[in-house]
Automatic annotation (TrEMBL), chains A, B, C, D:
Function field: Reversible hydration of carbon dioxide.
Protein's UniProt keywords contain Lyase: yes
Keyword Zinc belongs to the record: yes
Protein name: Carbonic anhydrase
GO biological process: carbon utilization
Catalytic activity: hydrogencarbonate + H(+) = CO2 + H2O
Organism whose genome encodes this protein: Azospirillum cavernae
Recorded superkingdom: Bacteria
Residues binding Zn(2+): 49, 51, 110, 113
Molecular functions (GO terms): carbonate dehydratase activity; zinc ion binding
Annotated CDD domains: beta_CA_cladeB
Pfam family, one: Pro_CA
Cofactor annotation remark: Binds 1 zinc ion per subunit.
Length: 223, 223, 223, 223
């Protein structure tokens, strides 16, 4: 596309790439040169949400090479289902664990998640017309079971409160971490203590990060 | 998990979150406050690779709120397949286009892509034992058809050359852009000129960005 | 100088400028455009040390336009001496206060300050051969008076301890703040409560920032 | 000062320091640890203006440890004058050259410099009432001699044009570089080719950087 036809957002992204190149290829070329010569060796697989406000690399002030990343709607991990279909998230988990040998997997949820709001509407019986979002977020449908009566009433009664969505967002992180354990190659490494699983939940309003205690299954504020 | 048991990479990520909070919640709180109060309004959906070296937010020097993001192995878009199964990438595309109303979709490929190397080995007949990576990258299998004899010989004959992988990486970006057009809600907006599709390929070795000319189907260096 | 003759450090600085231009003139041009059109309106005058490790803009994560800055050896403020000679630091203070109308002046000292080490050697009677450093740091000579016997013995006896230098570094910040009050146009505004003076001391080893309580004249850790 | 009394700009600076500490002491502690253990070894002395819009560390995307820095009004270097008075800029030059052994000195001027505007008013005969700024900028008074008739008419006639100030700003950079050569310890090293002098001028409006050709004494756009 000729330059004059580029939209403003695209032109600004290209300026960003120019700045990246100045910084990582000319100003301080060592780390990128090494990443090119030796390949990537990230220690962490991060499974985050597609939401533009919670970019995990920005949120953790990471540099190129540090985080192998999956981002999908609502940071979901489907259960292990090796049926030959297209499973993007599962493929990334397999690549990170079996090829790259990461030692940490972090599921990063967050408050005010649009995907979770879709899930709540779905479970409250609201009519939904979409092709992919509803089937996708239904991965976490069972996460709502313990709360479902409450859910229905909450969603109908207390519009504007964000307490209930936060409960669901955290439950979904828990489900994703549980689903990770259904992958044999994950479970094996967790049991051998060469792989750690983490569930995080970022509160967009306050900037606080909460972590799942994998023993008690409760979230606590991380220092 | 008590603090003393945290691994070094995890402690460093938490320090990064602390720095993010200092910067975006205390030092310059305006943009994040606005993103929380008004919700996200990104203009761009970026579909990038999970590779840790090509984080699209870093590569384009973006800020929170700018890029709605999918990241999967080899930046693949599956064809439109509304069968009720779990389609993470398709769900994100649907959310970005139908709910958020983005005006640009960028498929961002890159050189030295491990997923593409897997695809090449797969198509060259190499025995592969995995559950998800091979089925996933086979989305782009047809991208290799025009080159397939060449592929076999290349992969067997010219170890060390990276020319052939680059050809495939670019062909895969082309396939992903083509597959985007199989989504009715994408095609409709492209035809109405309210949505633009872009195929980019980042050369990790040189830092150069190449762009797909959607008319000629050829890649050219972007300024 | 033709490009091929530029040294490596210079080439890297130029790459940095290229990155700055990409970021502040193309990627996010709004703030720089405004600073050009409307001129500078910093609220803060920072008087810092020339030491390369304690750049105040980096240390406070500032953006262009925020800090009017003096940097000299040992962050010294000379006493008010309007004798027509060249007084660079006094000129900057005058410009910041009378022309720009800043509301805060911060004197930023730090640990492991080479200028202060020179002052200590000077006061301990060591023979010194320089043209400018010794006369310059002698501005703060009286800061050592309360400690001077102690100084001599300390410097001779306790090689390796960094306690004594820190005492002096803080005393020098105190002296600089006191000297600020000898400028009539500073004193006037402080008494009218339109200008605040601050003395800070940054501990390079720990990253902690200490602040001078202008009432008790003691330094305390800042949150 | 108790926390509740801190002004907004001060609270934001403190948040910046918190972010710096998170980044340089916890997230990526290696470089700062080394700078503390081994001391500073900058290769460059930068002599820049106090103007808040042209912070040299930001402008060159530098990291702690890279630039030994002087900042004063109008980036002036006084002539060598070892008379025992307080010469802050000369002391920093001496420390950088004789103690630290820098290999490059850069004088960094810029457009829209308030100090230079003061100098122009002064030389055009305008009555000026200040204690320090006029004497200080008069260091560069002789820089205007070749232009002085022109100056008077320009300043009186062509309000709004910024051409003439730019001519003066560049002449002042030239004077500062010339004055550097009056310092015996500078001249000696330049003649031995162990020290390089540079004159730069940054155009705030366009973001372009111009460099002084020390042979022709003319400024040219740097790539």
């Amino acid at each position: 596309m000729p330059s004059r036809e580029r939209s403003q957002p695209i032109r600004q992204l290209l300026a960003g790439v120019k700045g990246f190149r100045a910084r990582y290829y000319e100003r301080r070329p060592d780390s990128m040169k090494q990443l090119v010569a030796e390949g990537q060796h990230p220690e962490i697989l991060m499974i985050g949400c597609s939401d533009s406000r919670v970019d995990p690399a920005l949120l953790t002030q990471s540099e190129p090479g540090e985080l192998f990343m999956v981002r999908n709607v609502a940071n979901l991990v489907p259960p292990y289902q090796p049926d030959g279909s297209y499973h993007g998230t599962s493929a990334a988990i397999e690549y990170a664990v079996r090829v790259l040998g990461v030692s940490e997997i972090i599921v990063m949820g967050h408050s005010q998640c649009g995907g979770i709001q879709g899930l709540i509407r779905l479970r409250s019986g609201e009519a939904v017309q979409d092709d992919f979002v509803s089937p996708w977020v239904s991965i976490a449908g069972s996460a709502l079971d313990p709360y479902i009566d409450q859910a229905t009433s909450h969603v109908k009664d207390s519009e504007g409160s964000d307490h209930w969505p936060n409960v669901v967002e955290r439950a979904v992180v828990r489900t994703s971490v549980d689903n990770l354990m259904t992958f044999p190659f994950v479970r094996e490494r967790v049991e051998q203590r060469t792989l750690n699983l983490h569930g995080w939940w970022f509160d967009l309003g306050s900037g606080e990060l909460w972590g799942l205690d994998t023993t008690t299954k409760m979230f606590a504020l991380m220092e």
